[in-house]
Design brief:
By secondary structure, this protein is of the alpha+beta class. It has six helices and ten strands. The model has no long low-confidence stretch (mean pLDDT about 85). GO terms for molecular function: DNA-binding transcription factor activity; RNA polymerase II cis-regulatory region sequence-specific DNA binding; zinc ion binding.
Length: about 160
């Protein structure tokens, strides 16, 4: 089994996509991306993660731990990937352009999100009502209205 790390042999193939793993354990962890299984739950909020390391990163937000600092401004982040994303704001390199308007971005995923403005796509659905949102952050803001309503009912 250990030798596979040296040979590159990956006999365990995902039946859902082209992912291959050298160990069955790694394939099982990967399968969570398809099943939606998130066994690691935050004790502070309703966040759940598919991987333990994601939960650990999430917990940093609750304690305000932000070890990654921008060298150009006062921005601080709890995750290195967030700092890398932020650093792109300090550059003019924006290869992803909207064909509908003059929006430009350094990240393909940001262009994909932006395109929802033009297409009207709203993939995020509220579990409490029929509200839909184009951005996850907008859905989270909307969900607070339900939390506030239920809190008011409890204290009446």
């Amino acid at each position: 089994r250990h030798m596979r790390t040296h040979t590159g042999n990956k006999p365990f193939a995902c039946p859902e996509c082209d992912y291959k793993a050298g160990q069955k354990y790694h394939l099982n962890i990967h399968m969570r991306t398809h099943s939606g299984d998130k066994p690691f739950a935050c004790s502070e909020c309703n966040y759940k993660a598919a991987h333990k390391w994601l939960l650990i990163e999430h917990l940093r937000a609750h304690i305000g731990y932000k070890p990654f600092e921008c060298s150009h401004c006062t921005y601080k982040a709890s995750r290195k990937s967030s700092l890398i994303h932020h650093m792109q704001t300090h550059t003019d390199y924006k290869p992803f352009e909207c064909v509908e308007c003059n929006y430009k971005t350094s990240r393909k995923c940001d262009l994909k999100k932006h395109m929802r403005i033009h297409t009207g796509d709203k993939p995020f659905a509220c579990s409490e009502c029929n509200h839909r949102a184009a951005q996850l952050t907008n859905l989270k803001t909307h969900m607070q209205t339900h939390a506030n309503k239920s809190a008011k009912k409890r204290f009446k």
